[in-house]
């Protein structure tokens, strides 16, 4: 999973107490899936009907659940792990045991496979941004 990060927001000095359970992870790249899930929601919210991190299903450093309603009106519960994103339920906050849906490396590929309206919204947002950049360049000339 890729998440944009502003280096200025990262702590410079982190001190770990002897009893701190995270001290063994100092200097390693440990992802917090709750933070990843929030970043995913913020990144694609414009192109779906509704999307939010589940408050009813358990979230941990290695797993989070995201509820999404695509523009076509269908609702899904997504599981986010180091393996990627996958649909685990066909309703908000619903995990169907034994779900064998494939993992997607990015939220973009998942939504692209689930929602033609997502593709349109994403393409239109990209086009608007390109047109804005073109206008900026022309006004600077």
UniProtKB/TrEMBL annotation:
GSKIP domain boundaries: 33-133
**SUPFAM superfamilies attached here?**
Hypothetical protein c14orf129, hspc210 (SSF103107)
Q: State the superkingdom.
A: Eukaryota
- One Pfam family it belongs to: GSKIP_dom
Gene3D superfamilies noted in UniProt: Hypothetical protein (hspc210) (3.30.2280.10)
Q: State the coiled-coil residue ranges.
A: none
GO MF terms, alphabetically ordered:
kinase regulator activity; protein kinase A binding
GO BP: any one term: regulation of canonical Wnt signaling pathway
For this protein, the record's InterPro entries field holds: GSKIP (IPR037395), GSKIP_dom (IPR007967), GSKIP_dom_sf (IPR023231)
Task: List GO terms (cellular component aspect).
Answer: cytoplasm
What is stated as this protein's family in its record?
Belongs to the GSKIP family.
Q: What is this protein called?
A: GSK3B interacting protein
Task: List the taxonomic lineage.
Answer: Eukaryota, Metazoa, Chordata, Craniata, Vertebrata
């Amino acid at each position: 999973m890729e998440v944009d990060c502003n280096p200025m927001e990262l702590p410079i000095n982190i001190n770990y107490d002897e009893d701190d359970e995270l001290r063994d992870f100092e200097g390693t790249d440990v992802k917090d899936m709750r933070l990843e899930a929030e970043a995913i929601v913020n990144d694609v919210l414009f192109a779906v009907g509704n999307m939010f991190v589940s408050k009813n299903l358990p979230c941990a450093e290695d797993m989070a659940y995201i509820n999404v309603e695509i523009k076509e009106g269908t609702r899904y519960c997504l599981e986010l792990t180091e393996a990627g994103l996958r649909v685990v339920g066909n309703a908000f906050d619903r995990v169907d045991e034994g779900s064998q849906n494939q993992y997607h490396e990015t939220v973009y590929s998942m939504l692209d496979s689930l929602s033609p309206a997502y593709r349109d919204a994403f393409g239109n947002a990209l086009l608007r941004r390109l047109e804005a950049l073109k206008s900026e360049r022309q006004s600077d000339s």
